[in-house]
Amino acid sequence: MSAAQRHYQEELIRATQCHKAEAYDQAKEIYLQLLEQQPNNSLLLYLLGLVAHKQEDYAKALNLISRAILQEPQNTTYLNSLGNTLLAREQVDAAMARYKDVLKINPEHIEAMSNLGMAYLIKKEYSQAAVTYQQALKIRFNWDVLHLGLTNSFAGLECPASAGVHQQLYHHYNNSQPENPRPLSDTFFVDSQVARREALKQNRIELTTAVDGLQVCYHPGEALADDPANLVSIPFDDMYPVLLNTRLRIPKEVAFDLENASAISQAIRIAWQLDGIEVTRKRKVQVLANESICNRPEFKPDEPLRIYFRASRLTTVMQFSSKNLAKAFEKLGCQTHVVLEKNDMEALDAVQALKAQIEFNPHITVSINHLNNQMLHEDVFNVIWWQDPMPEIYNREPLPWRERDIVFSSYPQFDDMLKDCQAPEIHRQSFCVDLDHFRLTQPLEGRKKIVFVGSGYEAPHTYIGIERAIHDKLEENGEVTDEFLKSEAERFDLSFEAVRLWHFSKVLRTTTVVWWCQVGSELGYEVEVYGWSWQKTPEILPFYKGELSHGPEVAKVYNEARYALCANPRLVNSQRLVEVAACGAIPVVYDARAYTEPPNWDDECLFFNTRKELKKCLTRIPEGNPLDIPPHHSFDLFAERILAMVSKINDG
User: Fold this and answer.
1) Is the omega angle on the peptide bond into residue 569 within 30 degrees of 0, that is, cis?
2) What does the DSSP assignment read for 273-336?
3) pLDDT-flagged residues of the chain (< 70)
4) What is the pTM of this model?
5) Predicted local confidence at residue 460, as pLDDT
6) What is the pLDDT of residues 362-386, one digit of tens each?
7) Residue 640's CB: how many other CB atoms inside 10 A?
8) Phi, psi of 295 (to 5 degrees)
9) Residue 118: which residues within 8 A CB-CB, separation 6 or more?
10) How far apart are CA 364 and CA 299, in angstroms?
């Protein structure tokens, strides 16, 4: 080797060391010195191009790497890097062309495959991305980058089970942990023994912030006589038909041994089937929807009306309102069918609900908080009772109303939303109460407890920004007007509607429950607070008694109470008020009468705005009798009202 060659090699080594150490200016200086001696050296041009790329001078990088390729047009490393520079310049199609050039020369160039997959992801061509990454896996299965690409590809394809499997493999090969671990969920276990062990733990999984369920553990092995109910055996070959028709929740995760090649292969296969089942279910829903639309009920004078309810155990409002209204219809001679999960392992999806609806062939469907009118024959009456500001109406976009949709709204505040959604005539229907459960069983005399029953919030006593302003106003004089809320909403760049419906509700409930505990203790009452999350608030924790099941448990607590708190921002006639009154307790109500429609039960309730007024309420009794309130809020009256409206339309 000549002295010049030796000098070149030594300087090149020094430059590449600087390059690796990210000392790009030093590396660039040496490369340029060497290039002066060898102006057509493709390697030096390429390396200078890489430095320019690292320094985000993509135009220069493109020029330099292209010059290198002119010297070596078949160099796959150069072509691949050129693709990377084009991708950095957001020239995605041009980059893809270069990656494909690489693969024509070397079909197993795994970096080019991975980069091509990334380009497909950028273009949101998720199917092509998944195919490309899967081809690359055949060459190097343990490369974490490929599994990350497949995680994103399957997420884009809405294939969560497959995305989950490859996410596990990515972290395994990357030797890392996810920043946000996936929550415990229903799972298909490749190993039956692991499935049995987990099922015996009777794990609970979070379905909503307030409702949980028993984890369902699936496995491919044989079922045993002593298996717990939440351990479900499904052989691999039976997965598709069984899971397509089951009422149980479909597994969201696949659990497997990350070190076992056979288990990994089975996990990928299982995940693919799980995702395929979801696709097939969506298609099946469309087929059933078409059948339901053609399913015309006959209205015969000598036959009872059939009334269908689709409910869910995930929401107390929907579940118990549906059940109680169905019971009221039955008293009037109607046939009813309430579709609801039978246990805490089921999920009532659209397939099961539509099958039941088609078989029952209702004259009337009743929905709480959802329109649910797109899969009905035009002769079917659809009753919608809005009790919460659901996204369907909160977004204020036109909805596809039918001629036989009958709309009820619990709050005046919802009426404007419904009008913006182009709803037909809106009828007022306040909350109803099951008077068979909520009734007086103990006399008021001798009761020494004061109670509050209702959910809290995720961060109940953390007030920031707008919430701090509302809290301070409540503490000042208790009168939080719409004018104040509008002013604060503007100050904090929030919508008035969001402030009134969400922030004010949170602050009012939390603040008044804290007051309730404080003044009750000062007056010597036994104070009890029930509901989700109140244990997170230090001032309430000493009085917190846990959660209650809706119905008899709540009624029992109200029958032991002398006073019960009802605090809603712009509502008097709440469900809580009627339940309290029906059990003979005295309702102590945040005074929203300036914003509500009558009747406001001025004589039957005690009203407050401030902490001082609340304390005074606990020393008084109302002039009227709270037991006069419940008869006006019965499900029986509501059922009669609906039937009268249906009859009038049919006869008209």
Assistant:
1) no
2) HHHHHHHHHHHHHHHHHHHHHT-PPP--TTSPPEEEEE--TT-HHHHHHHHHHHHHHHHTT-EE
3) 1, 458-463
4) 0.81
5) 47
6) 999 999 999 999 999 999 999 999 9
7) 15
8) -90, 90
9) 87, 129, 149
10) 11
